[in-house]
Every structure is written in C-alpha cells, then in structure tokens.
Amino acid sequence: LKPPQHSSSIVELVAVIYSSKMFACCAAETDKMEEITAEAAEADKADTIAESPMSTPAAATDPPVEEKQEEKHEAKADEKIEPKEEAKIDEKIEEAKEEAKKEEDKKEEEKAAVVEPPEIEVSFPLNGQPVGLTLDLANPGDVGVKILKVKAAGAASEYNKTAATPLKEGQQIMEALGTRGTAQQLLDVIRANKTDKMTFKLR
Asked: What is the pTM of this model?
C-alpha cells in the first residue's frame, strides 16, 4: 500500500502553525517586558522629581511656624529687657555722680582741715637804706615770695636787732606794702617803693 500523497503537506502545515504560535508568544513577551521597563522608568522619574529641592520651594523660603513663634517671643523679651537696661545705666550714672561728689567733698574737707599758719605783719623804717633781703625768684609765678637770706647790711638787719618777730630765712612774704600777688609782682612793689618804710605780711 502507498501512503497518501498529501501527508507531507500536512506535516509542513503543522510546522508552520507551531512556528507562528512561538513567534506570537515571543512577541507578546517582548511587548510585556517593554511595558514593565517603561513603567519602571516613569516611577524612577517621579521619585527623582519628588526628591528634588525645586519641587518644594515653599519649604525653603517659608520658615516653620515654630521658628516664627520663637522669633516673636525673642522680640518681646528684647522689648522687656531694654527698659531694664536703661534703668541700670541710669543707676550707674547716678552712682558715679555721687562718688564724684563724695570725692570733691572729701577734698574740700581735707583742705579745710589743713590749718594755714597765721600771717605775721612786720613794719620797719628804711632810714635811707635798702631793704637788705635776698628773695627766691626761681618760680616767679608762685603766690608769695620766699626770703632766702637776710643780708648783714640793710634795713631788715637793723630791724632784727630789736624786733620781737625778726625776719628769717625761709619765711614767705605774702604781702608787701598792702599788695598781694606772685613773687615777681611783690618784688616789683618792693623796688618801686618811694616811702621810707616797709611793711610785710609773712607766713
């Protein structure tokens, strides 16, 4: 018996159908993988945008509510502190003034406590002679003039022979012929005397 002639054609048809199914299956798998890859890429992109600082500009510019409240509290605290600081400064100024006043009063008391020696008035005739005193003019601007020496010849030496309060070295002439002033002024008054008498106030 001979096999029918159409058997080879049937085998070829079965092979073609099988190949077509395999191709379709592979194509479906490929499409599915591409869809999964695309979804994953979109998800990664969305995560990147969400994590980017540009996506939340308000959070970068607007301070938290808690920080704003703290700033308000600090501002109020500063407002409360300022008057207290001013009061403290005023108190320190007043204390400094009081201390300065106490120092001045203390100095005045010390000056008052220093008892100045009484001035002694002497008067003697010149009898045509010079006064006969050597005066200290090292500091002509000082008040008064000091007697450095009583000369052996002169009206002062003659006066000392009988005077109860003789002229001495170291005494300070505070006034001459009714004039008070500096050493230079007193010397000028003594030299300009036109009378035959000399009057001193000594200390």
From this structure: 0.45
